[in-house]
Structure formats: C-alpha cells, structure tokens
Amino acid sequence: MHLNMLARMKPSKLYSNKPDIFVPIEFTPELNVVLAEIRLPENRNRDTHNLGKTTLGRLLDFCFLAGRDSKFFLFKHLDRFRNFVFFLEIELAQGSYVTVRRGVEEASKIAFKKHAARHRDYTSLPDREWDHVDLPFDRAKELLDSLLDWRSLKPWHYRKGLGYFLRSQSDFGDVFQLGKFANKHADWKPFLAHILGFNAAIIASHYEKAEALEDKQSKVATVRQEMGGDFEDASKIDGILQLKRQEVDKKQQLLDAFDFRAQDKADTKQVVDQIDERIATLNAQRYSLMQNRKKVIASLEEDQILFDPEDARAMFEEAGVLFSGQVKKDFEQLIAFNKAITEERYGYLVEERSEIEAELKTINSELNALGKRRSEMLSFLSATDSFAKYKRLSGELVTLRADIETLERQREFIHRLQQLRTEIRTLSEEKIHLQSEIEADVEARSADKDSLFSSIRLYFNEIVEEVIGRKALLSVGVNQQGHLEFGAELLDEAGNATSADRGHTYKKLLCIAFDLAVLRAHLEDQFPRFAYHDGVFESLDDRKKENLLAVIRRYTALGIQSIITLIDSDMPKISTTDPLFTSDEIILLLHDEGESGRLFKMRSW
C-alpha cells in the first residue's frame, strides 16, 4: 500500500484568533488523546465536568462546515464567541494541506488557503494572501468537497458520512443511524449501503419509486374527493352524455325553428302516460294509508279496562257468594297483566301511526308537486303566447347544458383516475423489479467473501472479538417493503444473537468497531482517514480498555488517525510502570482546577 495513499485526509491543526483563550491543538497522524484529569475530589462522582473534551468534536465539525444551528454552543452563546475565528488545517493528498477559516459572527463566509508545510499559523495572514476569501457557504462546501476529493463517497457530498468519523455522544445510540439522520430513511440508507459496498443506485431508485407511488396514491384520494362520490363508470357517463346531448340538439332545433308542435306532443304524452298515472297510484296509496291510520286511532281509543273488581264483589255478594280476598287478589293480578300487555301494544300502535303519518306526508308532498307540474304542462299546451314557450325551452336547455358540463368534468376526473392507476401499476411493477434487484445484490455481495461488505463484516467481528472475547455479526437484509435493514449484534458461544449489544457500553463499542472496520476496508480508496470517538473507554472494564487501545494502535499503524477523549478515571489500571500514553499522543490535557484547565480558558457556559 502506498504511503502517499495513507498520509492524507486527516485533521492536522485546530486553532483560533484568540490563542490565550483557545490554545492551538496540533494533531498527530496516528493516535491523538484528549485527556481530562479530575483533580478535585468533589468532582469525581459527577457525570459531567464541562471541561471541553466533547466540545472539541463539535468544533471540528464546525470547521468542516457544519450548517448553522441556533442550539450549537457558539451561536447559543453568541455574546461570548462573537469575535472568535477558527482555523482548521487538513492534510490532503500527497502531503499538501488546506486551512479553512471560519468565524462565528460571519459563519457563512469562508476562506481557504492551500500550503505545503504543516502546523502553520495563519491568524494574521491578510485576506489578499488567502486563495479564497468570504466564499458563500454553499460554494465553500463545494470547494472543500473538491479539495478533500473523497471520491469514494460520490455521488454523495463529503459531509454525508462525516458523522461516522466524528461521533458525538448522541451518535452512539445506534451503530448506523446517526443523530443527524433522524429524518427519512431514504436520506441515509442508500449512502450507508454505498460505503458498505452495495449497489446504492438501485436502493435510491427504489426509494424514489416508493415516494412517487405514495404521491400518486395521494392524488387518487384527492381526485376521488373532488369527484364527491364513487361514480367511476366511464361508459355509463358516456351514455348519459350522449342522451343529454341528443336532447339538447332536439330542443335547440325547436328553438331555432320556433316550432313547438313536437314539444307539445311530447308534453301531452308525459301528462297522460306518466304524471296522471303516478297521481292515481299515489292517491290509491294515500287512501289505503288513511284507512290504516283510522284503524290504529280506533285501537288506541279502545285501550281501557272495563272490568272492576269492586263491581264484581258486589255482584257476588248479591248472589250470596262470598268473594274472598284471595279471589280479589287474583283478579287484580290479571288486570295488571292485561294492562302491561295493553301498554306494550299501545307503544306499537303509536309507532305505527307515526310511520303512517310520515308516509302520508311524503305522498302528499309528491302529489302537490305533480299537481303543480301537471298544471304547468296543461298551461303550456293551452298557451297561445309562443314567447312563454320559448322562455321555458330556453331554461330547460340551460339546465341540460349545465348537466352536460358537470358530467364532462366528472368524465375528466375519471380519465385522470385511470391515468393515475395506470401510472401506479407501472410504478408498482418497477418497484417490485427493483426490490428483486436489491435482494439479489445483497445476497450476492453477502455471499462473496471478497466483497467490500464481507471485508467490513470480518474486520468488525475481529475488533469486537479482540476487545471483549465475543463474536459480533454485521448483517444487511431486505424487509417486505424492499428496504434495507442493517444489524449489528453480539453472538453467544453457540453463535446466536444476544441482547447484550443493547446496553450503552457495548453499543458504543459496536459503533467504534463499525467506524474502524469501514475505514480499514476503504484504505485503498479516496476516503477519510480519521475517526473521532468521545469517551472511548467509558463503562468498559480495565482488560477490555487495554484490548480496545491495542486495536486502536494497530489501526493507527495502518494509517488511520484516531482522536479519542477520556477522563483519567476511565484509564485502565495497568501493572507496568510505563505510562499508558506518550507525551506526543496526549495532544490536549484538561483539568478541573480553574479556567486554565478548560478547552476554552473562560468561565463555563
């Protein structure tokens, strides 16, 4: 492997225009340790110490041209940082460097300077000596993208995958989905598939088809709502349109000829054959209903009990028969029973009377309308004023044309629905075809021991097994919707997945192992060469910390720059007298004895 392929694409120096507050940090090409010492006993049991070890990663991201976020500490506390200007020196290909200048107050105006020597100080360099000054933010990102030349990320921008190599605390919750990837899976899964060696183009296309399909289905719902119903038989609408247009033509011919004889004849036939017949039918129904109502009312009036127990007792006494209390009681129970039956029957009769009266009301209403219509038609037939007939026919013609316009609009809706459904069928077929391609690609690359994914999977397991003595599995599958599902899990002795990876400790380890495995697999590509991991040893026991440090050192020897942060209490307790880190490896030493021990030599915010 060529050395010039390894010595590039790494942060080299981070400094500011206020070195007395923010001391310059010079990175080495290999291991870089940010160590925070907790010297005050009262701070040893605290979870956070606000010394700045986590803040360093955020600053690097800021200088790699992260977008402006009001919650970001530089902007959240603008009163303190307004006058700060930061400089990030980055090692490029073949030993050249570029320095990025970005201020806080004018964070969208970026300057660039290319140079040959490392660890330069350009805080006092006049603007005329910079290669590019005050570039707009988007143009600056494009320029940095071309300077970094991480072409193995293409067609994605350099910032797309930067989160995997600048892991903040919020990015250790999931191996694959970074904190900034909280949006749709279509925005990050194709990219992740790409760096794992899968065919990202078909995955991106599949998401596009799924989105287009969802859009078409939404439009179908909109069209159906605009139609105002489910009337979707185009043939039926065409038939109705044909009949109405024919009727329009006939009436128009009558109007044009001013001859109403044909219309008179048609109206006469309608009066005789339809309206009179309907009136006769309704009158018969009304008569029948009125008779039924009369019977129901009579039944309601007869609802009374004529039998009186006291009268019966007197009658029995006159006849010399003793009417005992028990007999009287039986009579009263009989009366109560008859009364209950009568009340129930009364309810049914009231309900039946209401139904009859409602039906009579409907029939009377229709009879009144038919009578009015019949009167109008007879008036039309006997009218001598041709202008009145002309006006009526004109009104009917207007109504017919309005009906035709409504039907034509509905026909357009149906035509649009048919088009959308055709497009939906096409998209569905294309989506299914792409899903088959995705499944075949995943299966082929997963089975190929020489594929990029197989290499990453082996490196991933190798790292985890070396640290904790357990095998780990990196997997990629395709769900029922055709989307990729990424998995990273620990295995037990039998090779079965366990729930141990769900804990924060091992989840962080899996994230670190994944990042390093991806970097190693891409060593021969135009790809980033560094990884920043905050709190790298947290919650691991001493032996596992030593193992992880050994892995990190081995990977830095391969050419991968590692920037790690830790608190001194997280350092493993080793038996040897040799220091865990050399003085060259500790690039930043923080402590809790006043402002001088913080990343920014000022009071905390």
Description:
The chain is α/β, with parallel strands linked by helices and 605 residues long. It has helices at residues 3-6, 55-63, 73-76, 78-81, 137-148, 189-195, 200-227, 234-257, 261-301, 309-318, 325-382, 386-447, 452-468, 504-521, 542-557, and strands spanning 10-16, 25-26, 31-37, 85-91, 97-103, 109-115, 132-136, 166-167, 472-478, 484-490, 530-533, 561-567, 586-591. The strands form three sheets. It has a six-stranded antiparallel sheet with strand order 2-1-4-5-6-7. A five-stranded parallel sheet has the order 8-11-12-3-13, with helices on both faces. A two-stranded antiparallel sheet has the order 9-10. Strand 9 and strand 10 form a beta hairpin.
How would you describe this structure in keywords?
6-stranded antiparallel sheet; 5-stranded parallel sheet; alpha/beta; 13 strands
Number of helices: 15
Number of separate strands: 13
Question: What is the succession of H and E elements?
Answer: HEEEHHHEEEEHEHHHHHHHHEEHEHEE
Strand order of the largest sheet: 2-1-4-5-6-7
Average pLDDT, rounded to a whole number, is 84
Relative strand content: 5-15%
Q: Which radius of gyration do the C-alpha atoms yield?
A: 45 Å
Strand-pairing-aware structural class:
alpha/beta
Topology summary:
Elements: H1 3-6, E1 10-16, E2 25-26, E3 31-37, H2 55-63, H3 73-76, H4 78-81, E4 85-91, E5 97-103, E6 109-115, E7 132-136, H5 137-148, E8 166-167, H6 189-195, H7 200-227, H8 234-257, H9 261-301, H10 309-318, H11 325-382, H12 386-447, H13 452-468, E9 472-478, E10 484-490, H14 504-521, E11 530-533, H15 542-557, E12 561-567, E13 586-591
Parallel strand pairs: 3-12, 3-13, 8-11, 11-12
Antiparallel strand pairs: 1-2, 1-4, 4-5, 5-6, 6-7, 9-10
Helix pairs in contact: 6-7, 7-12, 8-12, 9-11, 13-14, 13-15
